[in-house]
Amino acid sequence: MRNKIFLLLLFLTEIVFAQSTRITDNNSIGWLNYMGTFKLNSKVSLHTEFQWRRDEWIKNHQQNLLRLGVNYQLDPKVQLRLGYALAETYPYGDIPINRFGKDFTEHRMYEMVTLTEKVKKVELSHRFLLEQRWIGRYSTANLSIEDDYLFSNRFRYMFRAQVPLKGNTISDHTPYVAIYDEILIGFGNTVIENIFDQNRFGLLFGYKFSSTFKLEAGYINQILQLGREINGRNVIQHNNGFIINTLFNFDLQNKFKTISKS
After folding, report:
1. How far apart are CA 256 and CA 260, in angstroms?
2. From CA 16, how far away is CA 75, in angstroms rounded?
3. Cα pseudo-dihedral 202, 67, 78, 72, rounded to 10
4. Which of 195, 226, 228, 235 is 20 to 30 A from 93 via CA?
């Protein structure tokens, strides 16, 4: 019994000590996002995306993200995507991500698999994403542009559930609610501090106006660990705020058929 109590006290002490060695940086964020899909035929579509991420709600820059990709619909429940992303991250919060307090550019290649299913009224999706990242960095503080790029890998998994607020399906003119959580894990020789990179949780209210357009808005929580220490202590960002998604779906199949016949 005494040994169990001792082990419990030791475990609690380790938790308290681990928390005391962390620096917490709290920020208020606002993310405004565009997603557009252009369907070329029954199997292939193009993905376009731009995310305008802000700090202090919308006052300051946090990050701009452009993401492009080619989708292949393997079957009704499985979609594959291959793409490229360009991110520009700015100094924000009390402790910037870049150690010199500078903005930096990141290039990514990514591969994605999305699995979907429906359980009664609830639509479920599982997104698996693998990223190859080239992250810009500065060798000295007096440089105005990155002179090196650090390569690293990152794995991401997102679970999302959404349900209509009327009827059994999210059809035209239907409101719905959605909840999602995504974890981002870094791996490879260059990842030291932030094997746990981020976690993102969102709660959204959406409305499907038509087969072409949906709008979502709600709450987002982002927990992010910096890839470096400050005075031997890990830095954890707790970013809370709002998110707005505009989602467009354009079906170009008939136009391509017309062009091919002409």
Report:
1. 6
2. 49
3. 160
4. 195
Residues in CB range of 112: below 8 A, 6 or more apart? 69, 80, 81, 82, 83, 127, 128, 129, 130
> Which of helix, strand or coil describes residue 162?
strand
Structural domain range at position 27:
2-261
Which ranges of the chain would DSSP assign to H, the alpha helix? 2-20, 253-261
pLDDT tens track for 144-164: 999 999 999 999 999 999 999
Q: What is the dihedral of CA 172, 175, 49, 29, to 10 degrees?
A: 170
Q: 68-122: per-residue pLDDT in tens?
A: 999 999 999 999 999 999 999 999 999 999 999 999 999 999 999 999 999 999 9
CB contact at 8 A, 219 and 29: no
Radius of gyration of the chain (CA): 21
How far apart (Å, rounded) are the C-alpha atoms in residues 81 and 67? 11
3-state secondary structure 208-246: ECCCCEEEEEEEEEEEEEEEEEECCEEEEEEEEEEEEEE
Q: How many domains does the chain have?
A: 1
Here the tokens at position 203 are 């709660």
CATH number of the domain where residue 189 is located: 2.40.128
Structure token pair of residue 236: 């954890």
Here the tokens at position 71 are 């989708």
Residue 248 contacts residue 212 (beta carbons within 8 Å):
yes
Reduce the DSSP state of residue 17 to 3 states and report it.
Answer: helix
* pTM, entire model: 0.88
